Amino acid sequence: MMFxxxxxxxEKQDGFTMTEIAVVIPLTSIILVTLVGSLFLxxxxxxxxSARSDLRTTGQRLLxxxxxxxxxxxxxxxxxxxxLSDPFAPSGGWTHNSDPQTLIINEVALDxxxxxxxxxxxxxxxxxxxxxxxxxNPVAINNVIYFVEENPDSNYSNLRKRTLVPTFSTCSIDVxxxxxxxxxxxxxxxxxxxxxxxxxxxxxxxxxTEDSLLSENVVDMQVRYFAEDNIETTFPSSADKVxxxxxxxxxxxxxxxxxxxxxxxxxxx
Length: 269
Prior knowledge:
The protein is an alpha+beta fold. The chain is 24% helix and 29% strand. It has helices spanning 2-13, 18-64, 67-72; strands spanning 75-76, 103-108, 123-124, 141-149, 157-164, 170-173, 180-181, 196-197, 209-210, 212-226, 232-233, 241-252, 255-266.
């Protein structure tokens, strides 16, 4: 009889009481919520850092791709060249001190890419190309413009590249004879670059191709100009070196992620 009573008492002590359960369940929930939240924050930070790394890589690649134009520019510009026109320019025309800033590059017009060993300079035909010394005609100038454009469908802006080339008559080289000529025949080379403009205006006026879209994740672009002895100047035309700072951004689980890249280069010409 005593054994049965002791066994009965032990049976009553097995399991958790309602009070214990009422305490354990909330504590367990709090621990699980805290643990999951911590893991989620760590996961989000890993994704954010990966996004920053991708943005830095993209920005560095963009700036490195500018090297040829930055190296071989004749001069940086406060405005576009007086002989070039752009009916699709912002109100007031292209200026370097916009916000964000605009980079205006003056470059020698060529009939092929700069890396082509057989390239030739394109010149303005002030004198007859075929009968005058080629140097009697001044060098033709292209403008390459890097600008930031607001995107109404995004929190970020677009970085675009516009090219302006002359509309006046030019002299180049006839590949059949290697003599100067006016580009009116299939063998007389012309400016290798085409004037670009917004997509909806291609085919209008002198525009032959769409502006290049370089990035859709721009937060800001700033350009600093330096003259001789590394003295900073507010006049791009007097500078022989530029420092471009590009800030790109993205969103990861609603978190704003930004990366800043810089590129400094001194022109050769």
